[in-house]
Amino acid sequence: MRATTIHAPFDMRVADVPDPVVRNPGDAVVRVLRSCICGSDLWAYRGESARQAGQRIGHEFLGIVEETGAEVTGVGRGDLVVAPFTWSDGVCDYCREGLTTSCEHGGFWGSVGSDGGQGEAVRVPFADATLVALPAEAASDDRLLAALLTLSDVMGTGHHAALGAGARAGVTVAVVGDGAVGLCGVLAAKRLGADRIIALGRHEARTDIARRFGATDVVAERGDAAVEAVRELTRGQGAHAVVEAVGTEQSMRTAVSITRDGGAIGFVGVPHGSGTGLDLSVMFDRNIALRGGVAPVRTYIPELLPDVLDGTIDPSPVFDLTVGLEGVPDGYKAMDERTALKVMVAN
Amino acid sequence: MRATTIHAPFDMRVADVPDPVVRNPGDAVVRVLRSCICGSDLWAYRGESARQAGQRIGHEFLGIVEETGAEVTGVGRGDLVVAPFTWSDGVCDYCREGLTTSCEHGGFWGSVGSDGGQGEAVRVPFADATLVALPAEAASDDRLLAALLTLSDVMGTGHHAALGAGARAGVTVAVVGDGAVGLCGVLAAKRLGADRIIALGRHEARTDIARRFGATDVVAERGDAAVEAVRELTRGQGAHAVVEAVGTEQSMRTAVSITRDGGAIGFVGVPHGSGTGLDLSVMFDRNIALRGGVAPVRTYIPELLPDVLDGTIDPSPVFDLTVGLEGVPDGYKAMDERTALKVMVAN
Description:
Oligomer: homodimer
CATH superfamily of the largest domain in chain A: Medium-chain alcohol dehydrogenases, catalytic domain
Helix content of chain A: 25-40%
Number of strands of chain A: 18
């Protein structure tokens, strides 16, 4: 089959690789219908996260079950399914508590020895625990497929950030980061009932989506000016709940500075310097909490899926460019150069 | 009157200072019966926190109301009262939410221009909101006075840490720090119903108090060996709820390393390097939350006071040395050299 491989920074290829097969009785093989490129894939693309030459990539996909191992009972051949960005066994202590990303037998698509989502098919370990079945009719609805694809990562991650930040009725939420996760953080905060949502971002195409998703205010400034602007919008106090969806020193510094005393930061930006932006003395003096991390999106799918299916939330606008599998390298280039917000791959 | 002043690192004096008087209609003057020396006072003593020469010090005290301003209605002359370590107006947004330490008109005893607790008397701003009345008969009960004095800081701070860490029934709590706050964290975790409490500490006199306060296990190792020991006690997973009551890089590093995936650190150690010990990548991968800061102990007094009065909790054993006011410099020396755990000042 064909699949995306990474060889060196900025060297993405679509290459012939062995077809995946069922290896363990709990496995399924899923033929990918849609996958996408994640902002976090760009860390590998730019050489800031190490990869072996030829390693697979892509951790967001949905598709049709093609083959299942003898022990798989929850999904079957022909089912439309979505995969979260990690697989998990469903039975360990952490899975039973909902923290599927800490599964004792879990792993990430695209890690060494595993398939990646940006390819024709994927071998899925622990298929019963990992995959979630979707209504078959969604397969013929491009808009709905795009919305459902976000359940594999960005929508669940935005939800995790909003929960971590404490988004709820009666509070002001601020979102640092205008990428797909930040925008899904806006949508999640709205869904959780936040009264006021301040989106920080300077790219109008993106802040327009933020407004569609529920942002009541947009702050286009950066750094100290952004902090000043948020404080002006909040009677000098800052936001109760702040989503940090970037992971850099600057974004975390901004997040700390705009959080109201007693508030919380929900952080989901993969840390690339953000630890340095975390001023613990300020957090101590002002009782600012920090909650978040790699989102256990598998746990959130059953809660978010009905709202996507009935249109209560529609995260599909985060995709603004679609490529075919052979166009994946172009998709990386577009996201790296920020000419695309998020790239969908339609097989 | 006589009061403790700090002149330079290691230069504590007891000096003649002006008698406090009511300046504002909301003030009270409290004649101090008991005060104490806090671990955080040692940062000033050692010159690691800047102080002006002659500045007052001491933020924990209880005493008898001697005079009140015209607007004070909640406490009156002759009342036995305890003061939290900050004053607060009781009416601002933060006070109404219980975050009295972020009060818009609040302040710390011993800050420039204010009285400190380690003296004969203190002018208390916003007396109605700041002070909490105690039963008059407690004044003649030395043990009870000592227990009540902890409500001014260490017991409430330990409670704040335990809450931040998520101590509750069914969880394992670990406490980093064997000072008075760490020990009160043990007591608070026990009070909140924690099943298992692991105290980290190597000073037997202190870990003996930890056991009295509810610790089920003591880990005397430090650094990597301490992490290993906690993991062995928790099936390799770590503790759900970790109290960080020191504030150094090493203590925070230990706290992060012994927290179970999905768990939380309740941090109350005033940061002196602890930011560097916060490995955000580990916290991200394992979804470890951080909550805490300067404890709004005023808010906790009404909840903790009945349990102190009826003996449900007795934090008084944290005091292992009592001095008179003129002995305060010796008290600092004893705490600095760790020959005393916590020093009470009996006027």
